[in-house]
Write a structure and sequence with these properties.
- The complex is a heterodimer of chains A (419) and B (325).
- Helix content of chain A is 26%, strand content 22%.
- Chain A is α+β, with helices and mostly antiparallel strands and 419 residues long.
- Chain B is mainly alpha-helical and 325 residues long.
- Chain B is 62% helix and 0% strand.
- Chain B is built from 15 helices and no strands.
- In chain B, helix 10 crosses helix 11, helix 10 (210-226) runs antiparallel to helix 12 (247-253) and helix 13 (265-285) packs across helix 15 (303-324).
- The relative contact order of chain B is 0.11.
- Classes of the chains: A alpha+beta (419), B mainly alpha (325).
- Chains A and B meet through strand 16 and helix 10 of A and helix 1 and helix 15 of B.
Chain lengths: 419, 325
């Protein structure tokens, strides 16, 4: 089966080096981790430990108040000293449990369980109890795999494409733990009833050659690097059947060692980073430590959660690293370019992988012709920002399309005269 | 820490100014080539046109209560296109009228840069065609050297290839003269080889679409082959029709104006075909020897509709295919 379909997009500059080639850094000076136990979105747990109690790595510290919630496990060995509440840029008002770190070493395990011998039901129960999160989108892996199971896919993909500029944490995970990733992916495919599993990557020739030594050709599909956005899987209908590479590894470790997710791999880079690299830290580690390691100052640069094309700038770096966070950037503080009038060049339509007409949608939105917007399907937009990148007039086309999706169909004026 | 900055944090290097710069760079060889035949006269005409355009843009921005700026270069490009389409011996005031009409009547009242419905340069030349048909199509004989003085207007004239086609019969100009531009014609529309090089430059830079140009020229060629106006064969008819008047120049610079032409690929192809049919219709049964500008203006009226219709056609076809799967 061919996984290569011609799609629309644009070419971005290559900025993954040197982080992609350097070894993963594991800082050993982490003194404290803060783990969220309650927020405004989906997390609602209650503590099962007392203040000043010793906790060991992988120990349950908070259980969900409702069925189907995410349990919270300690990511270090240390002492629980209390809770505090502060605002998180994405989760809103969040309550955190503070653990003073004594040791980050994982416990000595006996020989791993043969994960392949576990039944699907046992695997689902294990990953749900351990609260494994998919690093690709931050969803609970058990819920995601159950939804996939109902749709009966033929192939499951581990999405290691990383088509934005700087992020290379999936590549680093593959390079270091390819056996665990492949095994975890194989287990996940079996759980959802898929016949086949593939790892999708977009690597340079040198990195691809390195990877081919470890991963069988029949389970590897490679796309061109620097192209954005890579929507081949979307075009072939496999978009809903992808999971993250770190989630595959976490699934394997959950099955083999009954180990919850305690660490995450984050690419710390950007144009102000003096030492861009991939950093592996326990969840709950402050973002400030990662920035210090890469030589980024939050006082003189814009800190971005996520990658260059779709990331969110944040004001406070005193937030913890959590599952789903795979890239943090330090970007030069620059004044945004003044947007000019659209000249209808059509470049945004050329790069739109959803085959929309962003300039037409933006024009109708600006002229408040909302009733004709639904004809142009602005709700199909997924916010990849390729149109904003390519626009010569430096207009925020994507934002206008997203706003248009909310207003589509509204009729501002009713010209019928009622008597 | 900047609060207003949003993703993406990197942008493509192209700007509206750089797109206009590409067109400017493409027109410069035409001006240089025409100076070989006409001395510095084309440069003087270009200077007058640019100055007029800038003054009109400034006045127009005052009316629109906008700060006048030249960031996009579209005003200068409009002036140069008008310059390329007037006769070398046309009075200077003709260029001033065309440029003033283009900027103050066609561009500014619709909102300025990026908001005009009609191509300003095409509208300016169309205005001259209607008001001063004798002056606009009066070209100097190529045997006469007019490069000595820029103020020479009363010289021996000769019929252009487009005029020869209109009157019927054979053309007195061999094919190599047509390609090299050694025929009576406008300042920048006769040197076909240079025009082709300009087109290739713009296509490579992606500042112009080959789809529009090729579909237009193929349509014109087919109609020229089917409805010949010359005594020669099919090849002679195609060559003469394509190399006469504003056809090739218009296919590159008028039909690729981003503001007034469609952006969707299929719509561009349909636009090119429609423009080709209209141009040949104007040439065969119209009053003037050249109808390129009128055809462009008529096609400008359906640009946006073509975009939406063609996109909708392909979008619905894609959805039907996906539903069938």
């Amino acid at each position: 089966m061919s996984f290569h379909k011609k799609i629309r997009g644009t070419w971005l500059p290559y900025k993954k080096e040197p982080a992609a080639s350097l070894p993963i850094l594991r800082p050993d000076h982490i003194r404290q981790v803060v783990l969220p136990i309650q927020n405004e979105i989906s997390l609602n747990c209650e503590l099962v430990i007392e203040e000043n109690e010793s906790v060991s790595i992988g120990q349950l510290i908070a259980k969900p108040r409702e069925d189907g919630g995410i349990p919270i496990y300690s990511t270090v060995s240390g002492i629980f000293t209390g809770t505090y509440t502060s605002s998180h840029p994405l989760m809103g008002a969040t309550t955190y449990a503070i653990i003073e770190c004594m040791s980050m070493d994982l416990p000595e395990y006996d020989a791993p369980i043969d994960a392949e011998s576990l039944s699907n039901e046992a695997l689902f129960e294990t990953i749900r109890n351990l609260g494994i999160i998919d690093d690709l989108d931050g969803q609970l892996l058990a819920d995601k795999l159950e939804q996939m199971q109902q749709q009966m896919p033929t192939i499951l993909f581990a999405n290691a494409i990383e088509d934005e500029l700087y992020s290379c944490s999936a590549w680093a995970t593959l390079r270091e733990d390819h056996v665990q990733v492949i095994t975890g992916l194989r287990l996940a495919a079996r759980m959802i009833g898929a016949e086949d599993y593939q790892i999708a990557v977009a690597l340079s020739d040198a990195h691809l050659k390195e990877l081919r030594h470890h991963i069988p050709q029949e389970h590897l599909v490679c796309y061109k690097p620097d192209f954005y956005p890579h929507s081949e899987l979307d075009a072939l209908g496999y978009h809903n059947f992808t999971i993250g590479v770190q989630a595959c590894r976490a699934l394997y470790r959950a099955a083999a060692y009954n180990e919850p997710q305690t660490e995450g791999l984050v690419t710390v880079s950007g144009d102000v980073a003096s030492l861009p690299m991939n950093v592996q830290v326990p969840f709950g580690t402050s973002l400030r430590i990662l920035l210090e390691v890469a030589g980024i100052s939050d006082l003189t640069s814009t800190i971005v959660l996520g990658d260059n094309m779709t990331g969110t700038p944040i004001e406070s770096v005193d937030i913890p690293v959590l599952p789903g966070m795979t890239c943090v950037l330090g970007m030069q503080e620059t004044k945004p370019a003044k947007p000019q009038t659209c000249i209808n060049c059509g470049r945004c339509a050329t790069v739109c992988h959803k085959h929309l007409l962003p300039y037409e949608i933006a024009r109708n939105y600006e002229n408040m012709q909302y009733q004709s917007l639904s004809f142009l399907h602005p709700s199909d937009c997924d916010g990849c920002n390729a149109c904003v990148y390519i626009c010569p007039a430096k207009r925020n086309v994507s934002e206008m399309v997203q706003s248009a999706a909310k207003e589509a169909g509204i009729q501002l004026y009713d010209w019928e005269v009622s008597t | 820490m900047s609060r207003n900055i949003k993703s993406p944090f990197i942008h493509h290097s192209a700007t509206t100014g750089s797109l206009s710069l590409d067109v400017f760079i493409a027109i410069v060889p035409l001006a240089i080539f025409s100076c070989i035949f006409f001395g510095i006269r084309p440069l003087v005409v270009a200077g007058i046109s640019i100055l007029t355009a800038l003054i009109c843009e400034y006045i127009g921005c005052l009316f629109l209560k906008k700060k006048p700026s030249l960031y996009d270069g579209s005003t200068i490009v409009t002036a140069l296109i008008i310059t390329s389409m007037v006769s070398p011996i046309a009075p200077f005031w003709l260029t001033v009228i065309a440029t003033t009409f283009a900027i103050l009547i066609v561009k500014i009242p619709f909102g300025g840069t990026g908001r005009n419905i009609f191509n300003p340069a095409a509208a300016g030349i169309a205005f001259l065609t209607v008001c001063f048909p004798n002056l606009i199509f009066m070209y100097p004989d190529t045997e006469v050297d007019i490069s000595a003085s820029i103020f020479v207007f009363d010289v021996t004239t000769a019929p252009s290839p487009a005029s020869c086609l209109r009157t019927g019969g054979s053309s007195p100009y061999p094919w190599y003269n047509l390609l090299l531009g050694q025929v009576p014609g406008a300042i920048g529309t006769t040197a076909i080889i240079v025009l082709v090089a300009c087109a290739v430059f713009l296509f490579v830079r992606k500042s112009a679409s080959p789809v529009t140009t090729v579909s237009f020229l193929v349509t014109c060629a087919i109609i020229a082959a089917l409805f010949s106006r010359t005594n020669g064969g099919v090849f002679q008819s195609i060559l003469l029709e394509l190399c006469s008047g504003y056809l090739i120049f218009g296919s590159i610079f008028l039909l690729n104006d981003p503001v007034t032409t469609p952006s969707h690929t299929l719509a561009r192809a349909v636009f090119g075909i429609l423009a080709g049919i209209l141009v040949m219709l104007f040439r065969h049964i119209g009053q003037y020897e050249e109808g390129m500008c009128f055809a462009v203006l008529l096609c400008n009226t359906v640009s946006t509709s073509l975009d939406r219709i063609c996109w909708s056609f392909l979008h619905n076809r894609k959805k039907r295919k996906e539903a069938a799967i």
